[in-house]
From TrEMBL:
<protein>
    <submittedName>
        <fullName>Uncharacterized protein</fullName>
    </submittedName>
</protein>
<feature type="region of interest" description="Disordered">
    <location>
        <begin position="46"/>
        <end position="69"/>
    </location>
</feature>
<dbReference type="InterPro" id="IPR039127">
    <property type="entry name" value="Trm112"/>
</dbReference>
<dbReference type="GO" id="GO:0046982">
    <property type="term" value="F:protein heterodimerization activity"/>
</dbReference>
<dbReference type="GO" id="GO:0030488">
    <property type="term" value="P:tRNA methylation"/>
</dbReference>
<keyword id="KW-0732">Signal</keyword>
<feature type="signal peptide">
    <location>
        <begin position="1"/>
        <end position="20"/>
    </location>
</feature>
<dbReference type="GO" id="GO:0070476">
    <property type="term" value="P:rRNA (guanine-N7)-methylation"/>
</dbReference>
């Protein structure tokens, strides 16, 4: 498993978050084929405080762009990965990685039972 999902915490976290995303679906009647949801991260705005406007005395919120996603440290958990593999749509997981611009992780087009049993 580690050979496909990476030994570093960076690849593990990215894959774990994408695994979680892979399980989400739209239950609305208007959604045809609402599983899995398509992931489209965009730049987001973040409030960073208040400032005085040059043109008026009213204060306005300052917003700065921030990445749509970030990498946070997480330990590799082979049992979690094994458990999740049976629940997810592998092709959708593979398709979601390029949609997250800036990610360099790659996964094989498929996996086998031997891959699941191998902890390296």
């Amino acid at each position: 498993i580690r050979s496909h999902f990476g030994s570093s915490w960076v690849s593990t976290l990215i894959i774990m978050r994408l695994l979680t995303h892979n399980l989400m679906m739209c239950n609305r009647k208007q959604c045809s084929g609402g599983y899995p949801l398509r992931i489209c991260p965009k730049e987001a705005k973040e409030d960073v405080g208040m400032r005085d406007s040059d043109e008026s005395s009213e204060e306005e919120t300052v917003q700065q762009e921030r990445p749509a996603f970030k990498v946070e440290e997480s330990e590799f958990n082979p049992d979690f990965i094994r458990h999740m593999l049976d629940k997810l749509e592998w092709d959708a997981l593979i398709a979601s990685i390029p949609q997250c611009q800036g990610l360099t992780q790659t996964l094989p087009p498929s996996y086998t039972q031997a891959d699941k049993d191998d902890e390296n």
